[in-house]
Structures are given as C-alpha cells and as structure tokens.
C-alpha cells in the first residue's frame, strides 16, 4: 500500500550506507551530516534532502555498545590482571573510566549504523 507517497525503488546497498554512516555522513548521498548534535539525527540531509528524523533507533544502539564493551573489556581486564599487579584502587578508577570513554566513542557510530540499516532496508519511516 503506497498511501500516496512517492515510492523510490532505487537500490540501497547496506555496506556503503554503513561505511558512510559510521563516519557521520548521510548514507543516501555521502555529503551531508547525519547528526545535528551528539545523538540527535539531523532533520534532513542538507545536501540531498533525505529525512533522518523518521528514524526510530530507540535503545538498540545502547544495547550494541554494552555488548561490544563487555566483549572488549572483560578479556582485557583478565589479561591485564594476569600480566600485571595493578592495585585494586587503581583498577577501580581505570576500568569504569575506560568503559565510559569507550561507550562515548562508540554510541554515535552505533546509532548511525542502526539508522543506516533501517534506511537501507526501508524500515520504519524510510520508504
């Protein structure tokens, strides 16, 4: 059912869309910026006009970041503790601090990847 909206049948390959989104670029044209602020998508691409405010990434990017952080930090903690004798007080500051920094570095690319996936598959508000 079309509901009167123009239907764009152009191919939207996932891999190039993800590569552009991970760099904060518009997956549709590669020119415009995807985010207006840190985690707020631009209402629309300034270059091609693709609307990004229709995306509904919700909590999925945070789940991705949590999953990746667990798989990165737990083995790292085990190896560091096996190789070095770091005092517990230093570790109490090191690991949570590293987790926060990595989470902040990963959340925007994760959200961009989720939005690019939705766009490439014409999910949610992307038609």
From TrEMBL:
Keywords recorded for this protein, A-Z: Membrane, Transmembrane, Transmembrane helix
Species per Swiss-Prot/TrEMBL record: Sphingobium fuliginis (strain ATCC 27551)
TM spans (from-to): 60-78, 98-117
The protein's name in its UniProt record: DUF983 domain-containing protein
Pfam family, one: DUF983
């Amino acid at each position: 059912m079309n509901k009167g909206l123009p239907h764009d049948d152009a191919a939207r390959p996932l891999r190039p869309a993800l590569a552009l989104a991970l760099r904060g670029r518009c997956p549709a044209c590669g020119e415009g910026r995807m985010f207006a602020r840190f985690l707020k998508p631009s209402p629309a691409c300034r270059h091609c006009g693709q609307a990004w405010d229709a995306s509904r990434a919700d909590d999925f990017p945070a789940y991705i970041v949590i999953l990746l952080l667990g798989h990165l930090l737990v083995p790292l903690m085990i190896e560091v503790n096996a190789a070095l004798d770091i005092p517990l007080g230093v570790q109490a500051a090191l690991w949570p601090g590293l987790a926060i920094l990595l989470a902040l570095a990963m959340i925007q690319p994760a959200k961009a990847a989720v939005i690019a996936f939705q766009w490439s598959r014409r999910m949610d508000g992307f038609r």
